[in-house]
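Predict the 3D structure for this chain.
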Amino acid sequence: MLQEGLCHSVSTLVTTENTAIAMGSGDMPVLATPALVALMENAAMMCVQDLLPDGSTTVGGWIEVKHLKASAVNAEVKATATLTIIDGIKLSFDLVAYQGDVKIGEGKHLRFIVEREKFLSKL
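Done. Predicted structure below.
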């Protein structure tokens, strides 16, 4: 059952594949902001995925992230999403990311519950 306060964390290792250089978002060998955003969004998606009705999923609608500190290759980064508001099919999340004890990112995210087949049929 979906309920406010649910949270989920995911982790990744910074590799050459998710650096700013590799992703084209910068020219430094550090975790790319798009990679951080994707990790945070994944935490939100995974937070509710197993609690949705059969045939349903969530899609992102809006995200705002502050990338506060750089992370070097081989650093482990952990993102946590907390479900803060349930408003019908709209789900709001608070996001935070850490490298060890250091906060490297924070933000807010809105996802929508959709019926997978119906959503895809509109494309």
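The two ends are 29 Å apart (CA to CA).
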